[in-house]
Design a protein that fits this description.
The complex is a heterodimer. Chain A is of the alpha/beta class. Chain A is built from nine helices and 15 strands. In chain A, the strands form two sheets. In chain A, strands 7-6-5-8-4-1-2-3-9 form a nine-stranded mixed sheet. In chain A, strands 12-11-13-14-15 form a five-stranded parallel sheet. Chain B is built from seven helices and twelve strands. Classes of the chains: A alpha/beta, B alpha/beta. At the A-B interface, helix 4, strand 5, strand 6, strand 7 and strand 10 of A face helix 5, strand 7, strand 8, strand 9 and strand 12 of B.
């Protein structure tokens, strides 16, 4: 019987079900006879939903770790993760699903336990009795299948989701998971400041996506003003953020947000593979680019071959003519 | 003070056409333009910024860049010499360890770094978007050094001998001190690009040798499985429609109309 040690944590409240749906898809590939041992690191938050999901499993044990009061940051402690997988055998699968920081703990665990780590895994697949992790490689242009047994598998943002039937949450017994050990403090914290809350770009209805083809920081600021006036959100590509033109918290793609907008207008975006991974949920994608051969046009629904600065100027004129001063759209 | 920055040189995969990616054979990347991995480039510049802050308080500092890079062949020598021009004191190449084998890469790097005894080792968070990001952790395990991730900047604290780092941890911006030798991974750095340098610096760099440590890293411990399978991703035919619009005002008005439709 295959055994899976599942570690869930750092899930944004309200986003638990999609996280379980992704994990469900992974576990189904592992087979119906899989014995599941689950560590929940988010305390009471989302616990009833978790139990409703686990209730439908043939063999599942649930351990709940509650973080100590007064956390300085949103990071998840490592000792419970290490303690939880203490009994994992060399062929057992260790699966992580949750926040970016949980994935980091997965990497640390893999190094400590001398196991391979398979990050950004999108699916598990069984081939000839062997389990493989499917993930994008070569800047997302190729699909790689990596042996998953004995590995630490980190669920990717683009992991497939699978519906599940909810069961009676009370049928699942939870065991409190207590770890007294403290993590070593090799890097004394001198100061921590809470950052202003970042807009949830995954939920935004209309998004202006700023690419390096916008040319200047000034043009980005112009786009932001128009977006504010017309009720759109603004996101960016990695090169824009690396240039210091926008906050890295607004990056779209495999290392940032996945958009689900009704409309996304991409300005000066070339269409690199890692970015395109973040646009699969967009209903209507319009690209504006001077280069008619830009890869973004392969993925866009509609394309405008034009200089973005010229479009911004025309939009600004339209905005100025708007007597109400706001919401031209 | 000794700083070592680990880096990787990667082909620019975006230069390869979608048609080539859709073929079963792997594209030939030998003649594709090479770059530093984007996070590695940020780590390389972060190391130089730390060097600057040490030199500002007259602290002697040596900064080395090291790679076990299969792509760092003759075609990448110019790129490597740019590191000298930018301010690196030593650029070291270890024998290549193969793809998708972070354990072997870390093992080779660890053998070199054990000899170097650096105060700070910097690595890019991942070689490229979606990659494993495992090397710093394997390295930490091998060298028994703590790993701090996602730093944005590193600098010498004024009036003390401590190195401080700024990092982003979830919803928090943190300032931490390094208590001793450590590994830090650089994520979305404050300075993401390698600095510009003068032509004179580049000419001088052309005379400096790339140090090859071929004998050091034989027998690197590999955990690579033979069974990695690569498959092309089916490419959908483009369905993009280009509206027949001639002038900029027409195009702008059409886009505005699309906004109106979406807002309804």
């Amino acid at each position: 019987m295959r055994k899976v040690f599942l570690i869930l944590g750092g899930i944004v409240p309200g986003q638990e079900k999609p996280a379980f749906q992704k994990t469900e898809a992974m576990l189904r590939a592992a087979g119906p006879d899989t014995a599941l041992s689950c560590l929940w690191l988010d305390g009471e938050s989302g616990l009833p939903d978790l139990k409703a999901w686990l209730g439908g499993k043939k063999e599942a044990a649930l351990f709940v770790y509650t973080k100590e009061a007064g956390p300085r940051t949103s990071e998840i402690p490592y000792p419970p993760v290490r303690a939880f997988v203490e009994e994992a055998g060399p062929e057992d699968l260790i699966l992580f699903a949750g926040s970016f920081h949980l994935s980091e703990l997965g990497r640390r665990l893999a190094a400590e336990r001398n196991r391979p780590v398979l990050s950004e895994t999108e699916a598990l697949e069984e081939v000839d009795g062997r389990l493989y992790a499917v993930r994008r490689v070569m800047s997302t242009h190729r699909e790689g299948h990596f042996p998953a047994e004995g590995a630490v598998v980190l669920t990717g943002r683009e992991a497939k989701e699978c519906a599940y039937e909810e069961a009676d949450p009370d049928a699942v017994k939870e065991t409190p998971f207590t770890v007294l050990e403290k993590d070593e403090e090799a890097f004394p914290l001198l100061k921590a400041e809470k950052l202003p809350p970042c807009e949830d770009l995954g939920q935004a209805g209309i998004v202006f996506l700023a690419g390096k083809g916008l040319g200047t920081r000034d043009n980005i600021e112009r786009l932001k003003k128009l977006a504010q006036k017309w009720g759109a959100s603004v996101a960016c590509t990695r090169p824009v953020a690396l240039s210091g033109w926008m906050d890295p918290g607004r990056i779209v793609g495999i290392s940032g947000w996945s958009l689900n907008a009704r409309l996304c207008i991409a300005f000066g975006v070339s269409g690199a593979g890692p970015l395109i991974r973040g646009l699969s949920g967009v209903s209507r994608l319009i690209a504006v680019n001077t280069d008619p051969a830009a890869p973004i046009f392969r993925y866009a629904d509609q394309g405008i071959v034009e200089d973005c600065t010229a479009v911004l100027e025309a939009w600004e004129e339209a905005a100025d003519q708007d007597q109400g001063g706001s919401h031209v759209i | 003070m000794k700083i070592v920055v680990c880096f990787k040189i990667l082909p620019d995969y975006e230069e390869i056409s979608p048609e080539e990616w859709s073929l079963p054979e792997e594209p030939d990347v030998r003649f594709v333009k090479k770059n530093f991995g984007c996070f590695d480039e940020a780590a390389l510049e972060t190391g130089l910024c730390l060097k600057d802050s040490c030199l500002a308080v007259r602290e002697p500092v040596q900064i080395t860049a090291v790679s076990t890079d299969e792509a760092a062949g003759a075609a990448s020598l110019g790129l490597l010499r740019n590191l000298y021009a930018a301010g690196y004191d030593k650029v070291v190449l270890l024998p290549p360890t193969g793809r998708w084998d972070p354990a072997a890469t870390a093992s080779a790097l660890a053998k070199y770094l054990a000899k170097e005894k650096a105060d700070l080792i910097l690595c890019g968070a991942v070689s490229g978007p979606g990659d494993s990001g495992a090397v710093p952790f394997y390295l930490g395990q091998s060298l028994k050094l703590p790993v701090l991730t996602e730093i944005r900047a590193a600098f010498r604290e004024a009036g003390s001998d401590r190195i401080l780092v700024r990092r982003r941890a979830g919803d928090f911006s943190e300032l931490r001190a390094l208590g001793g030798p450590a590994i830090c991974t650089v994520g979305d750095a404050e300075q993401a690009f390698l600095r510009l340098f003068s032509i004179r610096a580049r000419l001088e760099a052309g005379r400096k040798e790339i140090v090859r440590e071929d004998g050091l890293c034989t027998g690197a411990e590999s955990r690579r499985e033979e069974a990695v399978i690569l498959r092309p991703i089916p490419q959908e035919a483009s369905h993009c429609v280009f509206p027949e619009l001639k002038t900029v005002p027409e195009k702008a008005a059409w886009l505005q109309n699309a906004l109106r439709e979406a807002a309804r």
